Amino acid sequence: MSGSERVNTTLSGSGRVDDIQGHPQGEIRGLTKLVKITEDVRKYAAEHGLTDAEAIESGMQEKRKEFLESGAEVYVNG
Predict the structure, then answer these.
(1) Strand, coil or helix: 73
(2) Which of 7, 18, 22, 47 lies in the 20 to 30 Å Cα band around 30?
(3) How much is the mean pLDDT over the chain?
(4) CA distances from 14 to 11, 36, 51, 54 (A)
(5) Residue 69, SS3 per DSSP
(6) Has residue 76 got a pLDDT over 50?
(7) Following DSSP, what letter does each residue of 2-59 receive, concatenated?
(8) What is the pLDDT of residues 28-39, one digit of tens each?
(9) What DSSP element (H or E) covers 76?
(10) Domain locations along the chain
């Protein structure tokens, strides 16, 4: 790995390793993903007659249910 391909391993405030700077276009791709997520939330909200906040809460509840039904394991062996 050359010096220009270094991975930023400093911890962010959330306690996770922040490696978005590890890729030359990481920041742009990160912003693109945020825009896509926002569009998806707004589309879901419109389809279900919800506000953006209600759509996020509904989506979180759906994911919570999926997580619990799958055994509530953070790491899956496989």
Answers:
(1) coil
(2) 47
(3) 75
(4) 8, 22, 27, 24
(5) helix
(6) yes
(7) -GGG-----B-TTSSB--GGGSTTHHHHHHHHHHHHHHHHHHHHHHHT--HHHHHHHH
(8) 677 788 888 889
(9) none
(10) 24-70
